[in-house]
Please model this.
Amino acid sequence: MSMFSLAGKTALVTGANTGIGQAIAVGLAQAGATVVCAGRRSCDETVAMIEKDGGTASSVLVDFADPMAGQGLFDTPVDILINNAGIIRRNDAVDFTEGDWDAVMDVNLKALFFTTQAFAKAVLARGGQGRVVNIASLLSFQGGIRVPSYTASKHGVAGLTKLLANEWAAKGINVNAVAPGYIETNNTEALRADADRNAAILDRIPAGRWGRAEDIAGAAVYLCTPASAYVHGAILNVDGGWLAR
Ligand SMILES: NC(=O)c1ccc[n+]([C@@H]2O[C@H](COP(=O)([O-])OP(=O)(O)OC[C@H]3O[C@@H](n4cnc5c(N)ncnc54)[C@H](OP(=O)(O)O)[C@@H]3O)[C@@H](O)[C@H]2O)c1
Model:
């Protein structure tokens, strides 16, 4: 079997209806995984894309505004969890509200932790092996601007990736993360609409272009395959060279 094959594996991707999550779901299916597409709204488009490709997928509704909403997701066996669902709220730090703090922390960090905990409990209970890939950010390393809860949450995602890797590496669960650079999705619509910010960002990216959701999929798939069996607690930057600069 190829060291890049996911045949026989089941993967669950959160926020799989659009953007990076959709691209990862399609990539995992192309590698042979059966994919459960989880979203707060219908993932029918993603399921159709996978089935058109000859893959197998299903969908499930889950809203992480309730951070414990993922508890029932692993009643049937899942081998791979992609924690992709995330939101961002933009405002000056002096004006930032408790509501914008809590909303982002609940989805990006608290739901990620407790969903991953539920996944690991299920994997460990059946004596299986698991993979977790968290979607981090450049703001897991840098401060950003006007996005305090997002930056705090993504620094938290980086920390949890390492903590969970430390606890579970010897138990058969690999925990890693991908840190996307600036990717053309709904998440970055406001930045791309602002001509000055857009130009400043583009000017700093060595690759000279915004990333596409598909650019993230390969890295996430790699972190789920036998090829990355000895990779634990890594945060793989996929940023067109941004952090190298
Ligand atoms: N785009 C970038 O440049 C970039 C850079 C670094 C990291 N990221 C991270 O990449 C991940 C995916 O973002 P994206 O860029 O693909 O943006 P996106 O298109 O906005 O996708 C975010 C996904 O998360 C889902 N989601 C949000 N709140 C949810 C909730 N309460 N319950 C369940 N699902 C929820 C969204 O569902 P809806 O469609 O219903 O909103 C959507 O499927 C996020 O964690 C983001 O922080 C993105």
Q: What stands out?
A: The pocket of NAP is lined by residues 15, 17-21, 39-41, 62-65, 84-87, 107, 135, 137, 180, 182-183, 185-188 (CB under 6 Å). The CA atoms of residues 86 and 113 lie 13 Å apart. The mean pLDDT is 98.
